[in-house]
Design goal:
The chain is α+β, with helices and mostly antiparallel strands and about 230 residues long. It has helices at about 1-15, 15-105, 120-140, 210-220, and strands at about 145, 160-165, 175-180, 180-185, 190, 195-200. It is elongated and about 120 Å long.
């Protein structure tokens, strides 16, 4: 009898863990149900906020990419224009000597012989025409002469001081003479104008008067000691 009771008790105690697990499952399901319900209720709003945030980030990236592309395009255009201007400036700088030689040829023609020689007059007219056309091409591309006048102030960004001229006609530091004209293309300096700068003349030292020197010499002879002169009149 005792053994049967033990077996019966064992059989009664065995399902206890299963019963406890079965009892806890509905409670866990009941607790999880409100949480799932709350997640289901908040999900559209949360999803909308996430989508708006992602859209704002994408819009910001898009605007930044457009700004970078615009900056790259502007820098490329600026660099291209700079290369073109430099190439044109180098080419124009080589033509400046041609303009100088044309001007020298015009100035070297003796004006007194123009009326006597038709050939010389025709030659001068042709050279002046070539110079005029060259200057028109310079003007077309924004190349202009820098030709200061005597008395104008010296500007270091446009002029180059080559020598000094002693003169009282202009104030010191001003331009006194123009040795060679300059050229500029827009804001780019092709060649500065070479000029002479005025400075005050050095005052001359006063020459000694003839009377003062003769008096001293005569006094020395008169005041000499006896026997210092030899009489050669005898």
């Amino acid at each position: 009898m005792s053994e049967e009771r033990k077996d019966t008790a064992a059989t009664d105690e065995a399902p206890a863990p299963q019963q406890e697990a079965a009892a806890e499952a509905p409670a866990a399901a009941a607790e999880a149900a409100p949480q799932e319900g709350e997640g289901a209720q908040d999900d559209p709003a949360t999803l909308a906020r996430k989508l708006e945030q992602e859209l704002a980030e994408l819009r910001d990236r898009h605007l930044r990419a457009l700004a970078d592309l615009e900056n790259i395009h502007k820098r490329h255009v600026r660099e291209l224009n700079e290369v073109r201007k430099k190439a044109l400036a180098d080419f124009a700088r080589d033509l400046l000597e041609v303009a100088d030689n044309l001007r020298r040829a015009i100035e070297s023609v003796p004006r007194a012989e123009l009326d006597q020689s038709d050939l010389l007059m025709s030659l001068l007219t042709g050279v002046e025409l070539v110079e005029r056309q060259l200057l028109q091409v310079f003007e077309k591309y924004g190349i202009r002469r820098i030709e200061p006048q005597p008395g104008e102030p010296f500007r270091h960004e446009l002029h180059e001081a080559v020598y000094e001229v002693e003169t009282a006609d202009h104030r010191p530091g001003a331009i006194a003479e123009v040795m060679q004209v300059g050229y500029r293309m827009g804001e780019r300096l092709l060649r500065p104008a070479r000029v002479g700068i005025a400075k005050l003349p050095v005052p001359a030292e006063p020459a000694p008067q003839a009377g003062e020197g003769g008096g001293q010499e005569g006094g020395g002879e008169a005041g000499g000691e006896p026997g210092s002169r030899i009489d050669t009149t005898a």
